[in-house]
Amino acid sequence: MTRDEFLQAAIACAESLGDHHRRTPKQRLQEIADSPYAEHARDHYGSGGFVTVLEAEIAELFGKEAAVVMPSGTMAQQIALRIWADRAGNRTVAFHPTCHLEKHEHMAYRELHGLEAILLGESDRLFTLAELEATKSYSSLLVELPQREIGGQLPSWEELSAILSLAHKSGAKTHVDGARLWECQPFYAKPYREIVADFDSVYVSFYKVLGGLPGAALAGPADFIAEARIWMRRHGGNLANMFPIAISAKAGMDSKLPRISKYVAKASEVARLLNALPGIRTVPVEPPTNMMHVYFDASAAAMMDAVGDVAAREKCLLFSWFAEAPSGCRTELWIGDAGLDLSTERVGKLLSQMRIVP
Amino acid sequence: MTRDEFLQAAIACAESLGDHHRRTPKQRLQEIADSPYAEHARDHYGSGGFVTVLEAEIAELFGKEAAVVMPSGTMAQQIALRIWADRAGNRTVAFHPTCHLEKHEHMAYRELHGLEAILLGESDRLFTLAELEATKSYSSLLVELPQREIGGQLPSWEELSAILSLAHKSGAKTHVDGARLWECQPFYAKPYREIVADFDSVYVSFYKVLGGLPGAALAGPADFIAEARIWMRRHGGNLANMFPIAISAKAGMDSKLPRISKYVAKASEVARLLNALPGIRTVPVEPPTNMMHVYFDASAAAMMDAVGDVAAREKCLLFSWFAEAPSGCRTELWIGDAGLDLSTERVGKLLSQMRIVP
User: Fold this and answer.
1) Is the minimum CB–CB distance between A244 and chain B shorter than 8 Å?
2) What is the number of H-type helices and E-type strands within chain A?
């Protein structure tokens, strides 16, 4: 099966194991137009209307003094680290080697903000308290919860607390990369404000699991957020109207947050099914969130054949892409509304139908 | 009348002289959801779907090799000047003292991109060819067409051509700040691609006269646009889905561009009416576009009283704000759909009803 044939089979599927149900641009725009939050007055450059309402709600939810709605996490995080660096008079920031800023932003932290990074630990696992202890001076520490590029791993609460405490003792600020923060609530089993209590600044994403339009929020002390608004304008992110972001975000919070534990529980069941199959393993083996990476002892071509065949026959897409990995290939899977609508029994049956010919 | 009372009277108006008709966030989102362009597939980080379709159309319209849809003009213009500066190995850019980059972006060109500016000419008039001739080396020249902060003034075609030719002879690139470029077509009476033919890069805005959601496009040579995409990601502007911007932009182009000459003609009539009144003058006296600044020999408080009183009685808002100016106050007026729907006779009557007590 060619890549194009695989994509055709995927598009023809009515169901999928990963992601939320597919919606067209029209459906997504209609959902926002239908939202009661669209009844609010418009904002003027992010000031007033529903944007201000949501910012207050986000600040409250995370127990911070203030919050600001932004177009993207890329913008929000560079801004956070820049402000902490300026205040400390120290251009060095510390984060994991797979940090979004290191891998996906064309080194903007260096090119736009003149920051330098200390990369903590190894690419295939969480960094440790000991590794942080051995690290020289940094103005801020970024911790991604959960850590996407290693399948959504999370440090234990004790390890996390010790890490943040150590960073603070060294005089640094702490920032949480919460691109998928919503998804780690069941693991820590605490309200969001307690989970992020020891972080000085918090970024959360408004799409991904929330299913909304792109957007983000940054929360933290009032003077920090006031400064972040200036940097947001500098970045070109202070749009004349930001209501579409805010309306979409809140609609997603309303509909998806109550289901997070279900997504996580389902991911756990799916991981068990996958790890029981020969030549397949998940990272982590027991996912603490609704996401995981899946490794196959077969090539991407072999997996496209196997998964494409099930898709063509059963109209259900098990995995949507495969990237070559050292001993075969890998994919990423996250459980949302689409996976919730498949019984675990049906998932097991579909997985067992894959004829993987390495 | 207090400022709050004025705003109350303004909000209660069904008609206005300036701007397009007021629409709620819900109406604006519904318009986009209803657009046929929402039927296209979604884009993936700005690639594919209607975003790619629109980028090709914008490139064609402006006669450039390529174009990229961006969240804002602030982002687009910093990126353009940064690329030209990097290529020239010269951090200096040249623009007018009222340039958006100088006045409204918290000096991002310096703080994010390490650029320095030469300010050309005086704040209250267009810069001249002679002033550019006297200027030392710069990597790019930014020309805003029309120039918003001086009421939408435009250089003659001959002056503009001479300016761009001089910049090119000096080895610099030329960039057009087209925040309101759509509006200058009737004055130059040429297709858009001819108006911008001598510019190396073009920024246009997707809201303002187009009435859409915030968004912008940058057009230029293919290798320049490829580089701009990298900088857009660095800025945090490469959103996971950019279809709302593109759909809204094209809907605005379809509905508003055919009316630009009507807006401009109406603005000309309104300027004549205003300049015939004692103590009122427009800048420019004969607006080449659909916008103008209006100066009153009366305080902002006196104008709020006069305009608020007409608004309360006639349910038509003549001007929406007043800022103190040396000999009284000033406002900005641009004619869109709302002004087109008022007969010139009615505008004259409403203006004559203002009882300005200085």
Assistant:
1) yes
2) 16, 13
